[in-house]
Design brief:
Elements: H1 2-18, E1 22-27, H2 35-50, E2 54-59, H3 62-71, E3 78-79, E4 82-83, H4 87-111, E5 116-120, E6 127-135, E7 143-155, H5 158-165, E8 169-173, E9 175-177, E10 183-185, H6 188-198, E11 203-208, E12 213-214, E13 220-221, H7 226-234, H8 242-254, E14 259-264, H9 270-276, E15 283-286, H10 300-315, H11 319-333, H12 336-344, H13 348-355, H14 361-364, H15 369-377, E16 381-385, H16 390-400, E17 408-410, E18 416-417, E19 420-421, H17 427-437, E20 444-448, H18 451-459, E21 463-467, E22 491-493, H19 499-502
Helix pairs in contact: 2-4, 3-4, 6-8, 10-11, 11-12
Length: about 500
């Protein structure tokens, strides 16, 4: 029972985040032919609809088309991942996609408790297409005619939006109409990508028969940037059926779709695992200063000075003595505040107010579009965990423009254990934090610029990423990390912007 409760708790942040959002799903591969996978796919789609999301299904039908072509003695032919479609093949494509596969998917979803409606691109003027010509790689300047294969000119989403708004799940077969009424077979990946663009979807999920995008050694690649995808096209790593899939994913991402996932459709309930659970890295615990933004020049020196000034005034000692005491407590406890509270009876809230005097915060912190893009592409929950006070931390994330991308913010006021403050690097706080978030340590990653804080996290079973590109050392001394801290680091990065590209290394 506890495991079931954990699963439900794990899904809640995703249900809340994606409520009312559109999820476009390209359904194909083994998930369309295996009876168990077909049933689990239909249940997943219905559940997404029931919890408030708007799933839109675009399907292929390659295996079924091949079967029918074989029965009439015809062999399928492909050029750069596109099916060559003469008049006879087009008749088979229409028969299979619109007449067989579409109706089967609609029935599966309806049987699972949903309300699905089948469409082709011809219905309601949904997809306007024109003839596609493919560039001949062997003869530059020449094109290859692959028959009645279309490329999308435009999509009218009104019929999809009307159905979704009235509780229905649209299921779309990738057949489009030309200007003169001719029909075109369109690659389902490209249709799914363009539908996602036009609907301004939150996610585009492409089901495939592999774990995802693989390099030439068969290793999984994740968090790819557009530049990296272009390089994979150029060196031939991406070929065959993966070509239109990646082209669709890249175009959708560039057009504003928040996240694109290429998912192994052979995994039972792969949709729910990808959209509504902590699949892989489930929760990212992100430090704030010098991790999410550069605090070296304008923030941390002022905090140090404010702390020293407060200690000097509170204890009636010289600034030099106050500075040495501040550093001593920071080295001993990981936070100057703890030393002042434990040894001098200082009020913690007063200390925090005095240590973070930033009325001009809006002038020294700028919106970071690269950071926003990295966090948007990073799968899993993202929670800021900082030894800074909440008012300061909330102001910083608002100014950085990342507040809507975060699932929570835990500031130092929340880090209490047995009635006492226990900020990072307290192990008791780390364990309490895991319990509060209802997440296993093995599904968490802490991202920090402090090796000492990461050592405590790793000792609790949390995986660790050290951000090395932004460094700041206290005047008069630097923090001495605990023995073996270097061995407690799983991955090092220059900045948080690299996290989507290295996430697979810490799964």
């Amino acid at each position: 029972m506890s495991r079931k409760a954990e699963i439900l708790a794990e899904a809640l942040p995703y249900i809340r985040r994606f409520h009312g959002r559109t999820i476009v799903i390209k359904y194909g591969g083994n998930a369309m032919t295996d009876e168990k996978l077909k049933a689990s796919f239909a249940r997943d789609v219905v559940l997404l609809k029931l919890v408030g999301m708007n799933p839109v299904v675009v399907h292929g039908g390659g295996p079924q088309i091949e079967q029918l072509l074989a029965k009439i003695g015809k062999k399928g032919e492909f050029v750069q991942g596109m099916r060559v479609t003469d008049e006879e093949t087009m008749a088979v494509v229409e028969m299979v996609l619109a007449g067989q596969v579409n109706k089967e998917i609609v029935e599966l979803i309806n049987h699972a408790g949903g309300k699905a409606v089948g469409l082709t691109g011809q219905d309601g003027g949904l997809i306007r297409a024109r003839k596609m010509l493919i560039a001949n790689k062997d003869k530059p300047g020449e094109n290859i005619d692959i028959g009645q294969v279309g490329e999308i000119e435009s999509i009218d989403p009104s019929v999809i939006q009307t159905l979704a708004a009235n509780g229905f799940i649209p299921v779309i077969a990738p057949i489009g109409s030309g200007l003169s009424g001719e029909t075109y077979n369109i690659n389902a990946d490209l249709v799914a990508g363009k539908v996602a663009e036009v609907l301004k979807a939150e996610k585009l999920v492409l089901l495939t028969n592999t774990p995802g995008v693989l390099d030439k050694q068969g290793k999984l690649l994740t968090g790819l940037t557009s530049k990296e995808i272009d390089e994979l096209f150029a060196d031939g790593t991406i070929s065959g059926g993966m070509l239109p899939k990646l082209a669709s994913a890249l175009d959708a991402a560039k057009a504003g779709v928040n996240a694109v996932h290429i998912v192994d459709g052979r995994v039972d309930h792969c949709l729910l695992l990808e959209i509504m659970t902590d699949h892989g890295v489930g929760t990212w615990l992100l430090d704030l200063d010098n991790t999410l933004h550069d605090a070296t020049a304008h923030v941390l020196p002022r905090i140090d000075f404010a702390m020293t000034d407060y200690v000097a005034r509170r204890l009636s000692i010289a600034h030099e003595e106050a500075s040495a005491l501040r550093v001593h407590y920071w080295q001993r406890y990981g936070a100057t505040m703890l030393g002042m509270v434990r040894h001098h009876g200082v009020d913690a809230h007063e200390f925090l107010r005095e240590a973070h005097p930033f009325p001009d915060l809006h002038q020294i912190i700028a919106r970071d579009h690269g950071l926003r893009d990295a966090l948007r592409r990073l799968a899993g929950r993202k929670i800021v965990v900082t030894n800074a006070p909440g008012a300061y931390a909330r102001a910083v994330v608002r100014k950085l423009g990342i507040a809507p991308l975060l699932d929570g913010l835990i500031a130092v006021e929340s880090m209490r254990f047995a009635g006492r403050f226990a900020p990072k690097p307290s192990r008791s706080m780390m364990r309490r934090l895991l319990a509060r978030l209802r997440v296993r340590a093995s599904r968490c990653v802490m991202v920090e610029d402090s090796a000492a804080n990461l050592a405590s996290a790793r000792a609790c079973g949390i995986r660790t990423v050290l951000v090395t590109g932004l460094t700041y050392r206290l005047r008069s001394a630097s923090r001495r990390p605990r023995a073996g801290a270097g061995r407690r680091i799983d991955v090092q990065v220059q900045s948080v912007a690299q996290l989507p590209r290295i996430a697979h290394r810490i799964r």
